[in-house]
Amino acid sequence: MKNQHALRIFVLEDDVWYGSMLEHYLSLNPDYEVKRFESSTAFFDQLHERPDVVTLDYSMPDMDGSAVLKKIREVNPDIQVIIISGQEDVGTAISLLKNGAFDYIVKDDDVKDRLWNSLLHLKEIVGLRQEVEQLKEQVGKKYDYSKFLIGKSEVMEKVYGLIEKACKTNITVSISGETGTGKEMVAKAIHYNSERQKKPFVAVNVAAIPKELIESELFGHEKGAFTGAVTRRIGKFEEANSGTLFLDEIGEMDISLQAKLLRVLQEREITRIGGNETVAVNARIIVATHRNLLEEVQQKTFREDLYYRLIGLPLQLPALRERGNDIILLARSFIDLFCKDNGIEKKTLSQEAQQKLLQYTFPGNVRELKSVMELAAVMADAETVLPEHITINTAATVNDLLSKERTLKDFEIHIIQHYLDKYDKDVLLVAKKLDIGKSTIYRMIQAGELSTK
Ligand SMILES: Nc1ncnc2c1ncn2[C@@H]1O[C@H](COP(=O)(O)OP(=O)(O)OP(=O)(O)O)[C@@H](O)[C@H]1O
């Protein structure tokens, strides 16, 4: 069976007897896989197999040792080379070591021992290097999904799976989700974990730019293209070249501009406003919307052809209220972050405060939770955040309540809960305000449908 962690050694030695001796000797170590070559030509033919180490006879008849070393380093600088030389020549040895040889061993009586020790040393280095590579890979994974994006719920795990797929190719990604669910963060996670990570990530919020300016913002303009265009300006498409262009709130794009965007995406080139020259576009596109674009297509406010161009890999971000215990993970992380940034002592989240958070529907999603937790960290004087430190914007709850389709029973529960929250859990007052029997409320509390914490 092949030993996955074996050190792969190529022995390049024209002296058959000497080479066989080295091959036999090194093969005694079960952690070494040894291959022997008698000519440089045969050796270079097999170099694509990427040995970890080469033991190189300095005086090969078909190519001199320095040239072999140079060529190996050009092909793959990770391959370590141990020179084995018939003569002790300090000048040559130094020059070879300077040029990247790992060791220089003279063919004398000690050659086997020295080679053995040198390889042990090297194996340690190669092992460490592999370990570093593996750790880097793990850190890389952690970087995107746990440092940036917090959440372990099943729904978020699915999102991570899609992000991983999106990172591997240039496919257009369309992210949808309510406001504050982390659409921009996801777009960044994709960019910074894709091959384009070292190139620019350029975000444009389509809704935030006046209609008249968006075209020049995206495609740029030439000097004098319109009043106020005093200099030539490149647009976001050009700025994001080789990188990623994130078009946020794409559903807000004016229908006439949609036609222009479609043309750019089809032809992969832009023309700056007022210009004739075309410029190739190589930006990866990620779009986001809080709207249901398919509905917009049906209502003819979004072009169907553009919709199909942009849909690519659809990634639906769940609302915070669908992420279960992620609310607590996020809440804790926001408190920690806030305390750290402001140099105040760490605070913990009491059980009751956690319950209060879990009962709220967070229409503003993660963004809202973040500001609620920052305020809570300020309000809590001691080291524990209690329910009274958590200020929930009840007006938003009503809006959210009515904007969602629910069963009548669900509406009932949410409305009564909203009133209980608003009136400090005063059941009698709530019963009076809603004109319902207090026993109805008590029964629902007992059934666990309502909370008085
Ligand atoms: N999973 C997450 N982990 C940590 N922080 C998050 C997460 N999701 C969102 N956030 C934070 O919530 C805030 C809102 O995120 P972001 O701006 O990405 O949301 P959005 O969906 O793009 O919002 P909008 O719809 O308003 O454009 C940011 O401060 C972001 O750092």
TrEMBL record:
Residues 149-378 form the Sigma-54 factor interaction domain. InterPro entries: AAA+_ATPase, AAA_lid_NorR, CheY-like_superfamily, Homeodomain-like_sf, P-loop_NTPase, Sig_transdc_resp-reg_receiver, Sigma_54_int. GO terms for biological process: phosphorelay signal transduction system; regulation of DNA-templated transcription. Residues 8-122 form the Response regulatory domain. Keywords: ATP-binding, Nucleotide-binding, Phosphoprotein. GO terms for molecular function: ATP binding. It comes from the Bacteria. This is Sigma-54-dependent Fis family transcriptional regulator. It comes from Paraflavitalea soli.
